[in-house]
Amino acid sequence: MIFFSMILLFIFGVGLILSPIIVIRRLRRVKMKPRSPKRFFIVIFFSFIIGAIISIGSLYWLVDCYILDDAPYSFKVENAIEHYGYFDNYKLFDRIDTEFSLDPLIIVQHNEGDLSVCILKTRKMLIGLKRYWVRGGIPLVDSKKRFGYLIDENQINGGAILVFPDIWFGIVYPDKRNQIRINGKIPILHDIHFNGTDYIFWYIEKDNSEARLSFE
Questions:
Q1: pTM exceeds 0.70, yes or no
Q2: Pairing mode, if any, of strands 180-182 and 213-215?
């Protein structure tokens, strides 16, 4: 729908650009002059400018719409999660905007009893539209223990450097809230209540050293 709307906008913009040229040529052909030349040329000028903005903007979006892109960008976050293809019976559980990363974190609930964290990549279009792509899929809570744990409080996640390049993160139970340290620093804490249990999702900016988790 949006794709075809951009095509119509492009055609409309081109029409606004061509209409002043057509009007001027007709006036010359019949050897007529406008009653108010100043007002006439002001209208012609703004018609040309507005048409150029509309046509260039819509053309830019059409070129930049990533139809042939390998990454399946979507206009809705839910569709981006679906295109990621890792989750079954999913829904968006939470979103965390962190100052440590340009891309927000999203927590996805799937298979009713599982939670995973992903990076939400965002492409900003020229006219204010946004498209999304999900990456990551690091498990936080695994109800079936497919990865050998329900919740591993000694685990520091970050995934591959290309997926989570700026942050370390993990999940602990609330009794560790005031104890957790990463390289001696206190991480930012985010409360999660899931399936009747409270959790603390923590994250912190990566530094140049190796991550060391401790409870003090």
A1: no
A2: antiparallel
